[in-house]
Design a protein that fits this description.
GO terms for molecular function: alpha-amylase activity; metal ion binding. By secondary structure, this protein is an alpha/beta fold. It is built from eight helices and 24 strands. The strands form eight sheets. An eight-stranded parallel beta barrel has the order 1-2-5-6-7-8-9-10, surrounded by six helices. Bound molecules: acarbose derived hexasaccharide. Acarbose derived hexasaccharide binds next to loops.
């Protein structure tokens, strides 16, 4: 299903590795009031608890399921229920990251799990589900190593192990039933949809059967007959056996080209003027099927796809510019990344610290974010979604929803501007010189507050103001001395 089951909100945020209790509070205190549609949460099911010496409790242990019990470093089942309930009550939806392609990788017998369940990866025994050797794809995989060796061969991408992870056979009725039960538990608690991990590694036909078997969303929070939103993680930058198009009949698909192309453009490898037909015109999925983002939890640390073109919080000025473009431009359903900080340690082009888990105490319990007086986060949490330039553009996207892009302008290079119907106007300056132009804004005459350099508070503006004349034109200035290379005004920022 392709629609997010949210109200007016047009952007979701991935609160990567946050605890359920902190997400509940964030829904109430920030996300609901600011018009966010929902939250992608880290996988809620029990996972292997990995103490690998150097790499103790890596973030990626959560992608190694041990059972479908709701018990992780983010919290237990009660905390989970409370979060979904409280977020739904303020109109913020919860989308669960579901890991159903596989179970754990190999670990010595006796390795623990977050909920205390036992498992034996070597014999593929996961008694808390229960799964046993019969439920995995070993007999269907024909590579020497049992792993995926060649992404040019669809058969092995789907039937062999992804980086050594025991590969479930979704063709089996028993496995389908166990996954269905898990998803129905989540739906029963009020989850509005799923981010489907490693979808490329499952057969679309099997996924269709599984998602069709899941219950409708509960009428306590949703319209009768609502189906869970599905967005599938498929990395398709071209050139492989499997394409994103194979999955659009089930739900939306992550469009990994999007963040790569925008990273290239804002890093100066491509002129911004070409963005006027960004989207389908660039060989990306139809907008009705795509889920778009600047970075995700993988490619912000060199896993997954996109390489060194991906922008993250570490390039904050460019990151805010690319994010503003994404939220202003009418293509795809948008997801924001909300990260925690870690020190990078580059050795031969690879970050040796790419495994580091979330901020934690001495016992590896995840820490809560703290909040500074300006609303930004502390305790190691970056909280990009709390940066004014980012959450203000979430409001812009909501205000402009339902309009198309019109009145594109560019300087033939890296200064661009466009309107969203008569609802919003944005200008971006990625040149090494000032932007000083009189441009069509498409807005009604009056004074507007630029929601990038400040915000509208009461009747006044803490940032730059823009005066639109009777013909919709206004003088727009973005100098290179400014903190940000963006100016944005919209119907709700009229003074
Ligand atoms: C960990 C250890 C492993 C160990 C394993 C088992 O790191 O050394 O063998 O445990 O014990 C995460 C981590 C993994 C971690 C795993 C389990 O990232 O490091 O393994 O948890 O704990 C592929 C998949 C895609 C996947 C991505 C990371 O297709 O689904 O790899 N993402 C999801 C999650 C991710 C998670 C998992 C899946 C597993 O978001 O967090 O892994 O649950 C090509 C292919 C892609 C492929 C990439 C990377 O991409 O197209 O499909 O993604 O390679 O293998 C250019 C190309 C681009 C190419 C890319 C990289 O950009 O254009 O196509 O280069 O070559």
């Amino acid at each position: 299903q392709w629609e997010p089951n949210s109200g007016n909100g047009q952007a979701i945020v991935h609160l990567f590795e946050w605890k359920w209790s902190d997400i509940a509070a964030e829904c109430e205190n920030f996300l609901g009031p600011r018009g966010f549609a929902g939250v992608q949460i880290s996988p809620p099911n029990e996972n292997a608890a990995l103490y690998l010496g150097e790499q103790t409790r890596p973030w990626w242990e959560r992608y190694q399921p041990v059972s479908y019990r709701l018990f992780t470093r983010s919290g237990d089942e009660n905390a989970f229920k409370d979060m979904v309930n409280r977020c739904n009550s303020v109109g913020v939806r919860i989308y669960a990251d579901i890991v159903i392609n596989h179970m754990t990788g190999w670990h010595p017998a006796g390795t623990g799990a977050t909920g205390g369940s036992s498992f034996d990866a070597g014999s593929e025994s996961y008694p808390a589900v229960p799964y046993s050797g019969f439920d995995f794809n070993d007999a269907n995989c024909h590579t020497g190593s049992g792993n995926i060796e060649n992404y040019g061969d669809a058969e092995q991408v789907r039937n062999c192990k992804l980086v050594g992870l025991n590969d479930l056979n979704q063709g089996s009725d028993y496995v389908r039933g166990k996954i269905k039960d898990y998803l129905n538990t989540l739906v029963g608690y009020g989850v509005a949809g799923f981010r489907v991990d490693a979808s490329k590694h499952m057969w679309p036909g099997d996924m269709k059967v599984i998602f069709d078997s899941v219950n409708n969303l509960p009428t306590k929070y949703f319209k009768a007959g609502s189906r869970p939103f599905v967005f599938q993680e498929v990395i398709d930058l071209g050139g492989e056996a499997i394409g994103s198009m194979e999955y659009v009949g089930i739900g939306r698909v992550t469009e990994f080209k999007y963040g790569k192309f925008l990273g290239e453009a804002f890093r100066g490898k491509n002129q911004l003027k070409w963005l006027s037909n960004f989207g389908e015109g660039w060989g990306m999925l139809d907008r009705a099927y795509s889920l778009v983002f600047i970075d995700n939890h993988d490619n912000q640390r060199g896993h997954g796809a996109g390489g060194d073109m991906i922008l993250t919080f570490r390039q904050s000025k460019l990151y805010k510019m690319a994010t503003a473009f994404m939220l202003a431009f009418p293509y795809g359903y948008t997801r924001l990344m909300s990260s925690y900080y870690w020190d990078q340690n580059w050795v031969n082009g690879q970050d040796k610290n790419d495994w580091i888990g979330p901020p934690h105490d001495d016992n590896y319990n995840t820490l809560s974010p703290t909040f500074n007086t300006d609303g930004s986060c502390g305790n190691g949490w970056i909280c990009e979604h709390r940066w004014r330039q980012i959450y203000s553009m979430v409001e812009f996207r909501n205000v402009a929803h339902g309009t198309d892009m019109n009145d594109w302008w560019d300087n033939g290079n890296n200064q661009i501007a466009f309107c969203r119907g008569d609802r919003g106007f944005i200008a971006i300056n990625n040149e090494g010189y000032d932007m000083k132009e009189t441009l069509q804004t498409c807005l009604s005459a009056g004074k507007y507050c630029d929601v990038i350099s400040g915000s509208k508070e009461g009747g006044s503006c803490t940032g730059k103001t823009v005066t639109v004349d009777g013909a919709g034109k206004a003088y727009i200035e973005i100098t290179t001395m400014e903190e940000d290379g963006v100016l944005a005004i919209h119907a709700n920022s009229k003074l």
